[in-house]
Specification:
Distance between the termini: 79 Å
CATH topology of the largest domain: Rossmann fold
CATH superfamily of the largest domain: Response regulator
Number of strands: 12
Radius of gyration: 23 Å
Helix content: 40-55%
Shape: globular
Largest sheet: 7 strands, mixed
Structural class: alpha/beta
Strand order of the largest sheet: 7-6-8-9-10-11-12
CATH architecture of the largest domain: 3-Layer(aba) Sandwich
Number of domains: 2
Length: 370
């Protein structure tokens, strides 16, 4: 009898351990945590971790959740390998990321085929709209950003002849295409187009060709390359208005370009650290207390992403279809980057603004541009 009782206790103990293991819900996150764009990935990670820590603190009795990060280096092939590892080994049915459109478009077919929810905080290619019903993003499509900047260049800056310089990937191709269509529709002309490979450092050949086309404005669509483009433009004494993308809000751009970054305009979500909105002010205060730096928009996007995910997974942990349907049902979710509502394609729209670099600082130019 004692042996039987002892055996039952052991079985019960093993079963309890197994049940405890099952209680841990794992969420994967694929971000560039090293390489040229690591600064963006780490800021996203900061925002995600802040929201994660706050949730755990507020919900001590909630299901145990584990965040598992994988470094993609913003490389689509590495991202796919990370996705495979997280879904097959870690058994994640929900993945945050990737950072770039190319990463997301590489992972999307696998996610769709295996019914894994994939939600990116930053991928903006229009192709993602049709990538599948399990694919979401919390940043607007390039269709939105490209149109906003076309209107700004033509109506606000009163430019008529613009040159395009863009990175040769889904991000650069997507925005440049949308911008070109809208700018020409408004009555403007694209006088030169030039693309470069991601990670390039020498842009003088591209810039000289653009200079010969005599534009009155240059639209730069890039990420870590923006600083070098601006520096070399200044060295070539090219004098025309320059506008670019929100990734220009990076201290490295100013460090590299110096005065060459002055008077450069860029699109930016209507996220303002000076906002009196209680959600924003608390986020800024908590972020600065935790990390000792002012949160940029990527930190804000990471924070909103994690909070939206917590809203969707509540009670739906083991079922990706329920998580997917919960995301589609989210309407006007209040976040630090504005309210979020998903449409039938997993896309969202947000209010945009225009900022500029002036005297080594990032300043608002237009808070709300339509």
């Amino acid at each position: 009898m004692k042996r039987i009782l002892g055996f039952l206790i052991v079985v019960f103990f093993i079963a309890s351990c197994c049940n405890q293991k099952k209680e841990v819900y794992k969420i994967g996150a694929i971000l560039p945590l090293s390489g040229d764009v690591a600064v963006y990935g780490k800021n996203l990670q900061n925002g995600i971790n802040l929201a994660f820590d706050e949730y755990i603190l507020k919900n001590p009795n909630a299901k145990k959740i584990e965040l598992i990060y994988e470094d993609s280096k913003a490389d689509p092939k590495i991202a796919v390998n990370a996705f495979t590892k997280l879904t097959s080994i870690n058994k994640c049915n929900l993945i945050l990321g990737g950072f770039s459109s190319s990463e997301v478009l590489s992972m999307a077919p696998i996610a769709e085929r295996n019914k894994v929810v994939l939600i990116s905080p930053t991928a903006s290619s229009p192709k993602i709209t049709y990538a599948g019903e399990y694919i979401f993003r919390t940043t607007p499509s390039d269709n939105f950003d490209g149109e906003i900047m076309a209107k700004f260049a033509f109506k606000e800056l009163q430019l008529k002849n613009v040159a395009l310089l863009y990175v040769n990937n889904d991000y650069g191709l997507g925005i440049s295409k949308v911008f070109k269509i809208k700018f020409e529709e408004l009555g403007g002309n694209i006088v030169a187009e030039s693309s470069f490979e991601i990670g390039s450092e020498d842009f003088k050949t591209h810039l000289l060709a653009i200079k010969n086309a005599k534009p009155d404005g240059l639209y730069i669509i890039a990420s870590s390359e923006i600083g070098n483009v601006l520096k070399q433009k200044t060295e070539l004494a090219m004098d025309f208005k320059v506008f670019t993308v929100g990734l220009a809000e990076n201290p490295n751009v100013i460090n590299i370009a110096g005065k060459g970054a002055d008077s450069v305009y860029y699109s930016y979500p209507a996220y303002q650290i000076e906002s009196s909105d209680s959600i924003v002010s608390k986020f800024v205060s908590d972020y600065m207390e935790k990390y000792g730096i002012v949160p940029d928009v990527l930190g804000a996007y990471g924070y909103d992403l994690m909070n939206i995910v917590f809203e969707a997974i509540e009670g739906n942990y083991e079922n990706s279809d329920k998580i997917k349907n919960a995301l589609y049902s989210i309407k006007d979710f209040p976040g630090v980057t504005g309210n979020t509502t998903f449409d039938n394609n997993g896309d969202i729209s947000k209010t945009a603004g225009i900022k500029m670099i002036l005297d080594g600082e990032f300043k608002w130019y237009i808070n709300n541009f339509k």
